[in-house]
Every structure is written in structure tokens, then in C-alpha cells.
Amino acid sequence: MALTGRTVSWWVRLRRPCPVAAPRGPPVWLPTGLEACQRFYSSRDKEKIDMSAYPVESIRNFSIIAHVDHGKSTLADRLLEITGTIAKTDRNKQVLDKLQVERERGITVKAQSASLFYNYKGVNYLLNLIDTPGHVDFSYEVSRSLSACQGVLLVVDANEGIQAQTVANFYLAFEAQLAIIPVINKIDLKNADPERVEKQIEKLFDIPVSECIRISAKQGTNIEKVLEKVIEKIPPPQFNTTDPLKALVFDSTFDHYRGVIANIAIFGGEIEKGHKIVSAHTNKRYEVNEVGILTPNEQPTHKLYAGQVGYLIAGMKEVTEAQIGDTLFMYKQPVEPLPGFKSAKPMVFAGMYPVDQTEYNNLKSALERLTLNDSSVTVHRDSSLALGAGWRLGFLGLLHMEVFNQRLEQEYNTSVILTAPTVPYKAVLSSAKLIKEYRNSEITIINPAQFPDKHSVSEYLEPTVLGTIVTPQEYIGKIIVLCQDRRAIQKEMLYIDEHRVMLKYLFPLNEIVVDFYDALKSLSSGYASDKAYATGKFLCERLKDTIPRQLFEIAIQAAIGKKIIARETLKAYRKNVVAKCYGGDITRRMKLLKRQAEGKRLMRKIGNVEVPRDAFIRVLKRQPEK
Ligand SMILES: Nc1nc2c(ncn2[C@@H]2O[C@H](COP(=O)(O)OP(=O)(O)OP(=O)(O)O)[C@@H](O)[C@H]2O)c(=O)[nH]1
């Protein structure tokens, strides 16, 4: 069973072979062969390649899209191997997943691209592969990567069949009018049923069964067929080198030594070192220091031409200067910017504080450096009575938040407290005083502590998400109840085959952001109709289990405003002060216990409760952890 979603309407009323370019002269070609390629890449590392050998007809720009874990990264590894881009070894696991957190979690966080060279029927092709993240939090990255492509490989697991994100990704590609090649992966699995999956694809996406390719990315079966289809079915880009420069920024990373490295797709013209370019979004001017292709590491080239995909380094100091979707053009030759530019919108907000306030400055610089690399995170300074000075951060989703936190810890050796994640709300103000104060009649609230009083507000608005759920039919009843409980509105219900159903719901984001997926998986959710009391009780119980017992008693209370709605008591951990007191000297025992009680009373007054750092997230997951 699976869920995916993307924000559709933000605000609803809250009612409840390798080319070898000789340094001078025409390009020379090596035979497609692994050893030759290896020699080429090792001996000519960093020597510039001449890309003029690749007119648009020989270029195919494509992406791999799939539901999480259906095998995108494994297929990408095989494509890199078969084209000789990387050597074939057992160690090639998720080559395009460069971050430590990606390898550890087995997920793709940042999209990476790679240029592959392939000789097919005597013609040399340049195939630009853009890997895409699989998790719903990163669907924005999927959509921007797709804008650099003319086609996609839609990978579906032969055992699991079509899942929610297969559907969502299909529509992203379909709406972008891309050629779609269905690839049924994992045919080596014992329970693989490629025939059933092909029928699902035909029924749901109207793609004939004969178009599907059956592969095993793990064992390398039928990978050549995939490349053949890419060349035959995906149209070459239709751009002209003679036009003025028009380059789309579809991703960017930050390198501590070289500044921003922007991944670009050339929609017109050509670009090389020394060119003066302008960003359509910021209007800032830059001089190009280096252009190149990704193989998958940076390989400088003399130029990049229309239709090609590569990278650019031009003295940009922050990733915000190379915003995703931005258009770059030649200085004094302005062009119409490419459509569809939008800044990444954070959907989940949380407070971040140093565990120890003396660590504030270290954390601040770690945050600054990490956000240089991830422009979708927003940072505002914040402070809390209990936790001291900190920040309020905005993320694309809960996984994005967890990944960011993990990167802070792993790459910058910091430890932080993250508060409960919340979604943004809007308030339409009715109080003239507040309207004057905010200089607006509508305000966005990203911090629950700043919620204006309900008497000064005419209505509150909340963000919604269109979610797709694919499930075996026996769970439909329970899922419908769960969705209704989360205030969701059903939009569509469709049988994919005899056993499986696809449901579409409009969800309030707040209802699904933390734990909906867990609830969906366990289907055992059952809180009482009065959610406030039940949730309060649940939170108190969870906190009671999460906070270790201290030397003094702790009252854990849930409150709405000043009204306490639930309470749990965390009993004191009683040190056995009389352990060494053998025998029956009752007065001595009493004395020891009395002294302990006094000590505890004192500690309660001055006591600090030690709350484990991940308590906030664990507490917020409404489902019991397995
Ligand atoms: N048996 C079998 N397992 C496969 C095959 N392809 C991939 N896998 C396994 O499936 C799991 C997920 O594969 P990935 O390539 O990481 O999946 P992904 O779609 O890139 O995942 P995300 O990056 O998180 O979106 C891994 O354990 C792979 O080894 C295959 O053809 N057969």
C-alpha cells in the first residue's frame, strides 16, 4: 500500500562509446568498450572534451521516475556501467546517490545527472540521464528535473506493481508531454508477475503492453533494450545553437572551494568560459569560469551547445543565486525566461535549538553552510523560554526535515533539539489594529506561538494536498474511515485490476504530515471522536514513555490555552539509599529516606528535566512504534 501527494491548492477554508577530443583538432572516437573508456577517463581526467561532435539529433535527455524502492538507482548504475561511464564492479551501488545520508537510508535526496556515450547502429549518441528522488517530499525536484528532459523511463516493480508514486510521477511526465517508456523491473524475483503489471500499465496509462520492457536491474538483464528504446522512442531536443543563449537551471549544489555548481540544460545557443551571463530571476551578472558535463563527476568541456545538459561554474556564492527553474541568458541579449519558475515552498516548519546554548554559534555556522547547499530550507531566528535562542526552519516535508537534521549531525558534528513539526496557516484579520500592525489583512503563520487571537480573525486557512493511495481492495473500508477521520475529501476511486484500487483524496496537510503514512500502513488507528482530548492523552502517555524517569516526580500535562485536558505522572526514580543498610535498624533507614526526600524536594525546585532529543518526533507520531 502506498501514498503520495503533492500540493494542489494551498489554501482552503479551515473548517475543520566515449568521445576523445584531441586537445586541438576534430574529436577522435574510441570503440565502445569498458577498458577503453576507463583508460580515457583516468588518463584524460579534467582534460576538456569537445562537445561539438553532438548535434541535437544525437542527444537524448531522459529521466528515470518510479515509486520509492522500485529500482531507479540500481537501473542508473547498470546504465552507467553498460555505457562504460563507470567500471563494472560489485561496489556500484547507487553511484548517483552521493550523500552519506542517501546511501544510509537507501533513498535519493538530491537529483544527479550523468552523460552517457553510446554507440548504437554505428551512430554515437549522447544520452543525458537525470536521476530523480523517489520520496514524496522531493517531488518538486522530480518536476524540475523533468523540465530538462524529452522522455522518461517509468520503472515499476514486477512484484509490487503500480504504486501511488508511479501514478503521480506518470502524470508529471504526461503533463510535461514527455515520451514515456514503461520498464518493469525485478523480473528475477520469485513472486514477479510482469504480465499483471503490464496490464495495469495499459489500463491506467493507456500504454500498450507491447511497449513495456521487462528487466532485472540487479542482474543486468535486458539493459541494452532500455538504451535502444531511449534512442528510438525519445525525441531529440528541438533547440538551435544559432539562437541566443537560453539555459535552464534545474539543480544546484555548493562546493566549498568553487562556489555554486549549477546543473543546466541548454535550450538555445551555446556557452563557454569567459561568457558574460545574466540570471533572469535575480538580474545579477556573472562571468563563466567553467562549463562541463557530469560523468557522473564534473568533466570540463570546451563549450556546451543547444540540447546538451551539463554544469556551469560562474562565481555564484550561494545556491539561492542559482535558483531552480531560473533562466540564464547572455549579457545584453535578453530572452523570454522559461516558464514554470517557482521557488521551493517549505511545507513543514520546526524549531531548531542547540542542545547546549554555548553551542549556538557553532550550530549557526553549520546551518549557514548546510543551507548554502539546500536552498529549499528556510531559516528564521526564533527563541523559546524553555529552549533558548534558536531558529525556525521550513522544510519540504518530514523526511526532508529528518534528512537535514541527520546531515547536520553527520557532516557538521552538531546535535540539536527539533521541536514538533507544524504546517503554515493563514489568518484573515478582522481587527483594524492588527491589520495596521501587520500592514496586511492576511498573514501567514509559521510558528504556533504567533497564532493571533481568534477574536481578531475572520477566518483561518490551511494548505491542502491531493493524495493518491493505491491499496489491495480488502483495506478500502478502513482506509476510507481513516481518510474521513483526517478530514479528507474523496476525489476519485478506480480499480486498477481485480484486486487493487486507486483512491484520490484532498487532505489538509496538517492531518498527514507527521504520521499518516504509518497510520495507513498499520490501519489500526482509532482515536475517539473528540480528538483534542484523545490526542492530549496520547501525547502525555507518549512523553511519559519517552522521558526517562528522574530523581523527582514530573507532571506531564496537555493544555489548550489555560485549560489542562490531560495529565500523566512520571514517577520519581527512587535510588535505593537503604541498599547498604542491612538488618533492622529502623531509625537509620528512616533517616536515609528522609534525607532522600529532602534532596528530591530541592531538585524539583531547581531540577532540569532531561528530554531526549528525538522525543519530539517520536511523541508526534500518533501510531505506536514497532
Ligand atoms: N531482486 C531485485 N532487486 C532489485 C532490482 N533492482 C533493484 N533492486 C533492489 O531494490 C531496492 C531498491 O532499489 P533502488 O535502486 O535503491 O531503488 P530506488 O527506486 O532508486 O529508491 P529511491 O532512491 O529511494 O527512490 C534495493 O535493495 C535494490 O537492490 C532487481 O532487478 N531485482
TrEMBL record:
Residues 57-238 form the Tr-type G domain. Its main location: mitochondrion. It is a peripheral membrane protein. Pfam families: GTP_EFTU, GTP_EFTU_D2, LepA_C. CDD domains: EF4_II (cd03699), EF4_III (cd16260), LepA (cd01890), lepA_C (cd03709). GO terms for molecular function: GTP binding; GTPase activity; mitochondrial ribosome binding. GTP binds at residues 66-73, 131-135, 185-188. Keywords: GTP-binding, Hydrolase, Membrane, Mitochondrion, Mitochondrion inner membrane, Nucleotide-binding, Protein biosynthesis. One of its GO terms (cellular component) is mitochondrial inner membrane. SUPFAM superfamilies: EF-G C-terminal domain-like, P-loop containing nucleoside triphosphate hydrolases, Translation proteins. PROSITE patterns: G_TR_1, G_TR_2. It is found in: Mitochondrion inner membrane. It catalyses: GTP + H2O = GDP + phosphate + H(+). The keyword Cytoplasm does not apply. It comes from the Eukaryota. PANTHER family: TRANSLATION FACTOR GUF1, MITOCHONDRIAL, TRANSLATION FACTOR GUF1-RELATED. NCBIfam families: lepA (TIGR01393), small_GTP (TIGR00231). This is GTP binding elongation factor GUF1. It comes from Meleagris gallopavo.
